[in-house]
C-alpha cells in the first residue's frame, strides 16, 4: 500500500451519480487516496453532451446576445439529478445563479475559460460533499504567468502548503488563475495536468488516473481487434507513443510527475480490480516483456524531397532548408537524408497553407536540381525499450510489411534506438498496423 496517492477521475468516471458512487467506493477502499482531482461530468451514453460542451455553448450564446438561460437550466437539471441520486444537500440553483450573475456583471467572468471551468468546479464541490471531504479550489492553488504558461514554482509551493493542511480534499481539474485574477483553463484533457501538478506538489508516492479503459493499449483498438494492455511502460516509451497519438493521458500530464519520479497508474473505474498500466522511469527488474511495447501511427503527412548534386559538400544546406520551414511556422517531423538528397516530412495541412512561399524560398536560397512532393503519407512508430538489445528488429519490421504487400516510403530510427518509424502510403495504414501488431506483439 502506498503512503500517499493522488487520484484523478475523468469525465466518464463521473458522468452521473452511479459513476460517482463507483469512484467514491474506489477512493474509500484505500486510505492512502487523500487527494482527488475531478473532471466535469462526461457523456453518459454515445449521443449525450458533456457538461463542458454545454458550458461552451452557453458562452457562445452569451457572446452573440442570445438567451443562454435554457442551457444553464439544462446544466442545473443534470447536476440536480446527480445531487438527488447521491442523496446530499447541495443548492445547485444558487450556484448556477452565482455563475449567471458573474457572467453578466464583470468582464473578468465573461471569458470562455471561466464558464468552461465551472463544470469541474461544481462537480468537485458535489463530490466533496458526498465524500464528506474538503473542497479545495484550483483557482487558489494553480497559477499561470502573464504569458499563459504555468507558474511552476508558485503553483507547486502553494498547492503543497494548502493541501498539507488538509487531511483529505477534492480539487477541480482543468483550470487555474491568471495574475489579474481571471480564470484560465488548460487545453482539453487538462484535468490530467492538474492531477499531475497536485501529485508533484504533495510529493505523492503514486498518481492514479482513473478512466474508462483498463490501461494503455499496445495498438489502436479501432484498427486492431482486442489489442493487449500494456502492463508496464516507461515515461520515455509513453512519450514516443503519445506523440504518435496512442495515449489515454494528456501529454503535458507526464512532465510534472516524471521530473519528480512519481509513477502513474492508469486504471478503469468500471473495472477497479484490473491492475491497469503502470508508467514509471524504469521497468521493474523482474518484469519480462517483448522487445516491442506498442505500435502507433498518424496519417496526414507529406514529404518534400530536395535533390542537389554535391549537396554533401555544401556547408549548412540542411540547416538552411529547415530554417525555411521554421520561418514559415511549419515544424518538421522527420528528416531522412542521402548524399545528394534530403527529405523533410511535415504535416500536410500546415505545408499546404504555406506551400508556395516555402517552395519559392527553397528554389531561391538553395538552387536545388529537383524538388519532389509526395502526399498522403502515414507514419507508424514501433516502440520498445527492449528493441536496443534485440537483434534484427528492423529486418522483422521490413519483413512484416513486405509480407503484407506494403511498400515502405521512409525509414527513420531514433538515436536512442527506442523506436523505428516507417512512412507508408495512407491507403496501407490500417493493414500495416495490423501486420506489425500480429508479427511484433501478438
Describe the fold and architecture:
The protein has 442 residues and is α/β, with parallel strands linked by helices. The protein contains 14 helices and 16 strands. It has helices at residues 17-28, 51-63, 69-86, 92-105, 112-131, 152-164, 191-201, 235-243, 254-260, 317-327, 348-353, 355-366, 393-403, 429-440, and strands at 5-9, 33-38, 134-135, 169-172, 175-177, 183-185, 206-211, 232-234, 264-268, 277-280, 294-307, 332-334, 341-347, 370-383, 410-413, 419-425. The strands form three sheets. The chain has an eight-stranded mixed β-sheet with strand order 3-4-2-1-7-9-10-8, with helices on both faces. Strands 12-13-11-14-16-15 form a six-stranded antiparallel β-sheet. Helix 2 runs antiparallel to helix 3. The protein is globular.
Name the descriptors.
single chain; 442 residues; alpha/beta; 6-stranded antiparallel sheet; 14 helices; 38% helix; 20% strand
Give the topology:
Blueprint: E1 5-9, H1 17-28, E2 33-38, H2 51-63, H3 69-86, H4 92-105, H5 112-131, E3 134-135, H6 152-164, E4 169-172, E5 175-177, E6 183-185, H7 191-201, E7 206-211, E8 232-234, H8 235-243, H9 254-260, E9 264-268, E10 277-280, E11 294-307, H10 317-327, E12 332-334, E13 341-347, H11 348-353, H12 355-366, E14 370-383, H13 393-403, E15 410-413, E16 419-425, H14 429-440
Parallel strand pairs: 1-2, 1-7, 2-4, 3-4, 7-9, 8-10
Antiparallel strand pairs: 5-6, 9-10, 11-13, 11-14, 12-13, 14-16, 15-16
Helix pairs in contact: 1-3, 2-3, 2-5, 3-4, 6-7, 7-9, 10-12, 13-14
Amino acid at each position: 500500500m502506498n503512503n500517499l496517492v493522488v487520484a484523478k477521475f475523468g469525465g466518464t468516471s463521473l458522468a452521473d451519480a452511479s459513476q460517482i458512487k463507483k469512484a467514491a467506493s474506489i477512493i474509500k477502499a484505500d486510505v492512502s487516496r487523500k487527494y482527488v482531482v475531478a473532471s466535469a461530468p462526461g457523456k453518459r451514453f454515445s449521443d449525450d453532451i458533456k457538461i463542458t460542451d454545454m458550458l461552451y455553448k452557453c458562452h457562445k450564446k452569451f457572446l452573440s446576445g442570445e438567451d443562454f438561460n435554457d442551457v444553464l437550466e439544462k446544466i442545473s437539471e443534470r447536476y440536480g439529478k446527480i445531487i438527488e441520486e447521491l442523496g446530499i444537500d447541495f443548492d445547485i440553483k444558487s450556484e448556477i445563479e452565482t455563475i449567471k450573475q458573474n457572467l453578466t456583471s464583470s468582464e473578468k467572468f465573461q471569458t470562455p475559460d471561466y464558464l468552461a471551468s465551472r463544470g469541474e468546479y461544481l462537480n468537485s464541490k458535489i463530490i466533496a460533499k458526498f465524500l464528506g471531504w474538503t473542497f479545495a479550489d484550483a483557482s487558489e492553488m494553480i497559477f499561470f504567468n502573464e504569458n499563459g504558461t504555468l507558474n511552476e514554482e508558485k503553483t507547486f509551493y502553494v498547492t503543497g502548503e494548502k493541501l498539507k493542511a488538509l487531511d483529505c480534499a477534492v480539487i477541480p481539474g482543468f483550470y487555474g488563475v491568471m495574475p489579474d485574477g481571471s480564470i484560465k483553463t488548460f487545453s482539453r484533457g487538462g484535468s490530467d495536468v492538474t492531477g499531475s501538478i497536485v501529485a508533484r506538489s504533495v510529493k505523492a508516492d503514486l498518481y492514479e488516473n482513473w478512466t474508462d479503459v483498463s490501461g494503455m493499449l499496445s495498438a489502436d483498438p479501432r484498427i486492431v481487434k482486442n489489442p493487449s494492455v500494456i502492463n508496464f511502460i516507461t515515461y520515455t516509451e509513453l512519450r514516443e507513443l503519445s506523440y504518435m497519438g496512442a495515449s489515454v493521458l494528456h501529454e503535458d500530464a507526464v512532465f510534472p510527475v516524471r521530473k519528480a519520479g512519481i509513477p502513474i497508474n492508469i486504471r478503469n473505474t468500471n473495472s477497479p480490480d484490473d491492475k491497469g498500466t503502470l508508467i514509471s522511469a524504469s521497468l521493474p527488474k523482474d518484469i519480462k516483456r517483448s522487445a516491442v511495447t506498442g505500435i502507433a501511427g498518424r496519417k496526414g503527412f507529406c514529404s518534400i524531397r530536395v535533390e542537389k548534386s554535391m549537396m554533401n559538400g555544401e556547408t549548412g544546406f540542411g540547416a538552411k532548408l529547415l530554417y525555411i520551414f521554421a520561418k514559415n511556422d511549419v515544424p518538421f517531423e522527420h528528416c531522412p537524408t542521402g548524399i545528394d538528397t534530403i527529405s523533410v516530412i511535415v504535416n500536410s495541412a500546415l505545408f499546404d497553407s504555406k506551400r508556395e512561399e516555402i517552395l519559392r524560398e527553397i528554389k531561391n536560397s538553395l538552387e536545388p536540381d529537383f524538388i519532389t512532393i509526395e502526399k498522403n503519407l502515414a507514419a507508424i512508430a514501433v516502440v520498445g525499450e527492449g528493441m536496443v538489445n534485440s537483434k534484427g528488429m528492423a529486418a522483422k519490421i521490413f519483413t512484416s510489411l513486405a509480407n503484407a504487400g506494403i511498400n515502405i516510403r521512409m525509414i527513420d530510427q531514433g538515436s536512442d534506438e527506442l523506436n523505428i518509424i516507417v512512412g507508408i502510403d495512407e491507403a496501407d495504414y490500417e493493414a500495416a498496423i495490423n501486420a506489425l501488431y500480429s508479427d511484433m506483439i501478438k
